[in-house]
Design a protein that fits this description.
Arc Repressor Mutant, subunit A; globular; Gyrase A, domain 2; 10-stranded antiparallel beta sheet; 33% helix; 238 residues; single chain
């Protein structure tokens, strides 16, 4: 298969990286953030960037708590809230939404690292429970995906797992929902099955990590460790 025929896989990435105000804010609150666009404020690699974002949640207090957490972050500038447009179709989940502008340091962006290694951003980034959910297309060939992901992790000091992948030769989504769990430990299998049954792998998610951890009576950190390890085993192309 030629490079042109095998390139173009589409992936959904679950990602964490340090010094991110949105990750910090959503990890500490029940609100979520949708990242729409980011633009540099000046033609300089060291200039700050302006982004358009939407904070969302099930209640007004959840959204306000999330915005307060953004304001308190040392990695974020001043929030400038945007007036809601009459008749504008809401493009974020949640019962309550508030759109805002924010200026911050471009050195804390992970997008350039993803682009450098062939992952092209194709949709707004959704941040919930201290994790970012990226929809990307990969410009290389299928066997190059795993090395490229490892390079992103190394360069951005990030933690990345693959939620789903669609390759041009299959036209079907290979996701955690339909894979065998033989390779998992009992704890990993329980966590994975609980997450799947509760709608954690649906879009939008049917349950948050915090809620699922409470239902399973384990810590959020332990649950995430089980899920990430399980996903890594299940999605290993070998």
């Amino acid at each position: 298969m030629s490079h042109t025929e095998s390139a173009g896989a589409r992936l959904t990435l679950d990602l964490w990286h340090p010094n991110c105000w949105a990750i910090e804010a959503t990890d500490r609150t029940d609100g979520g953030i949708l990242a729409h666009t980011v633009q540099q404020t000046a033609q300089s690699p060291t200039a700050s960037v302006n982004g358009v974002f939407t904070a969302y949640g099930a209640t007004k207090s959840a959204v306000e708590d999330c915005l307060d957490a953004v304001r308190a972050s040392s990695h974020a500038g001043e929030i400038q809230e945007l007036q809601a447009r009459v008749g504008h179709k809401r493009d974020a989940p949640g019962t309550v939404v508030r759109q805002f502008l924010l200026e911050y340091d471009p050195g804390e962006l992970v997008c350039p690292t993803l682009l450098e290694h062939g992952f092209v951003h194709s949709a707004p980034v959704r941040i919930e429970d201290g994790r970012e959910r990226w929809q990307v297309s990969f410009t290389g060939e299928r066997p190059e995906i795993q090395p490229a992901l490892e390079a992103v992790e190394a360069d951005a000091d990030a933690d990345v797992s693959v939620e789903s992948i669609v390759t041009p030769d299959s036209d079907t989504e290979r996701s955690v929902g339909g894979l065998r769990t033989d390779s998992l430990t009992p704890a990993q299998r329980r966590a994975f099955e609980a997450a799947r049954e509760a709608g954690y792998y649906q879009w939008p998610r049917g349950i948050s990590v915090r809620e699922l951890a409470a239902e399973m009576d384990i810590s959020k950190t332990t649950l995430l460790e089980h899920l990430r390890t399980a996903e890594s085993k299940l999605l290993d192309p070998e």
